[in-house]
Amino acid sequence: MKLIKDFFLAFCLLFLTSCNPNQPQKAEEFVSDAEPTIVYTGTDQEKIQQIIAEIPDVEEPSLDLVYATSLTALPLSCIDRPQKQSDYKGYLYEGSVKIKPAYEDSLSFYGCYDWHSAVNSTWTMVRLYKEYPDMILGGLIEEKLDNHLSEGSLQGELKFFEEIASGGFERPYGWAWYLYLYDEISSLDHEKAEDWSNAMKPLADYFAKKTIPYLENMDYPMRVGTHGNTAYSLDLMHKYAESAKNDSLLDAINTHSIRFFGDDEQCPAFYEPSGSDFLSPCLAEAVLMSSVLPRDEFYKWFNAFMPAPYDPAFSSLKELPEIMFEKEGADEPDDTKEGSESEEDEHDLMGAKSHLVGLAFYRASAFNRLAEVLPDNDPRKELYKKLANYHGKEGFDSLYKTDYLGTHWLGTFAVLYLETLGNQNSASK
């Protein structure tokens, strides 16, 4: 009888321990080696194959030295070009028209139209230089990094954010890009990389620390197609947090990503895009969750979240963004209207059009990243790869039609897409 009683007590103790809500479970405990059950079989699979056949065949692009040099020229052309006068006072302009004295020595990201574009353009230079360290522009890139990532310039950046900027300045998009740039610099094989990284670190630490309470105080994420998109910025920060082994930030990103998006189902992709989107809210959320969730958990979540390829709700993601740079039969521009309201409208329209070019590149990179994590026997894997090439071609076809409003930042999104192809190294050999 005592043996039965002891066995019963041991069983209860084991049961209570296994159900303890405070006992942490490691992510790898949820990962299964077995292939997940594919949800699209039979006639569903035939429908997907039909969709694949309808998408135009597009040759996958590759990055070679010549094209890398061309893309590098885009950030180099703007990195020292002072930004337009911003509605936000205090960064580059002290008053309504007065620019700060000696700003080149006390700031880092004063070029490329706006602060975040200067940051991601610097990342583009570094990423391409890392791929092709012997490119002819290498010396010029090093010169720019020496200037913009100097200790003095980055101390000025930190002082600005600590003492002058409001908490919301460039948060979260610009902050995320800075952390992403810091991660790229930290892994650069260059004799000066450590100096650049050390100069950047205090501001990186500042952004990482401040992001945690920012997420804790957010009741809802931003599901937009522009800079405020929560998922996109968290995806950039996630890579930094992993590389930097910043467990506090990584835990915050994982926890709040699941809080924000873990229960989402049937993303309304048919709402996309709006007139000036450069991100896809549905794809950005899915890409983030592919990094946050264990693989098998992500697959279950993704099947409930992403509309089926043959669902009308998915159709907008298959279609290219409608980018109209010239209207047939439009009147010739009137030179007498310089500075007029119509010229200002045209300026705004060009900005919106450049965003849609960015959307083509973003969809291409997102589809490739999602295809990478889908099981090999999932028919969406082939579909997403084909859609990536289709959208990517549209991005490259339109890249140089956007004038400075597009070229100052679109090279970044082109490189992000090319990164997902995994063929840069093979192209350079």
Describe the protein.
The N and C termini lie far apart (76 Å). The model is unreliable at 1-33, 327-340 and 423-429 (pLDDT under 50). With 429 residues, the protein is mainly alpha-helical. It is built from 19 helices and no strands. The chain has one domain (49-325, 341-428): Glycosyltransferase (Alpha/alpha barrel). The protein has helices at 2-18, 43-54, 65-76, 103-106, 115-131, 138-148, 151-164, 173-186, 193-216, 230-243, 247-261, 281-292, 295-305, 315-318, 341-373, 379-398, 403-407, 410-419, 424-428.
Structural class: mainly alpha
List the secondary-structure elements in sequence, H or E. Answer: HHHHHHHHHHHHHHHHHHH
For the record, the CATH class is: Mainly Alpha
CA-CA gap between termini: 76 Å
What number of structural domains do the residues give? 1
- Total number of helices: 19
Radius of gyration: 24 Å
Task: Give the helix proportion (percent range).
Answer: 55-70%
- Overall average pLDDT: 85
For the sheet with most strands, the description reads: none
Low-confidence stretches: 1-33, 327-340, 423-429
Strand residue content: under 5%
The CATH topology turns out to be Glycosyltransferase
**Which CATH-level-2 architecture?**
Alpha/alpha barrel
Shape: globular
Number of strands: 0
